[in-house]
Structures are given as C-alpha cells and as structure tokens.
Amino acid sequence: MHKLEEIATCELVEELIRREGVNEIILEPYEKLSSKVADPIEGPARVLCVID
Fold it and tell me: Is the pTM here over 0.90, yes or no?
C-alpha cells in the first residue's frame, strides 16, 4: 500500500471526485468564488466540497 505522500496530488483529486459525497466546482480563469468558510478564490481552480 502506498503512503499518501507518495501519491501525486492530481491522482488524489481524481480519485476523490469519483466518490459519493464529493462535489466539484470548476472555476475558469478570472472567475471568482466567495464562501463563508474561506477567503475568496480566483480561478483557474478546482474546488472540492466533501460531505462526510
């Protein structure tokens, strides 16, 4: 079994978005996302919301 430190972040993200309870928000360049729990995010970005 691999340690998480050995797995590329892009592979972890791809695995997470396939799981139930994970929503992905894709921000295009210069698109902004505001949230009550974090500072505003400016794209390009992939934001994962995990409901566990």
Answer: no
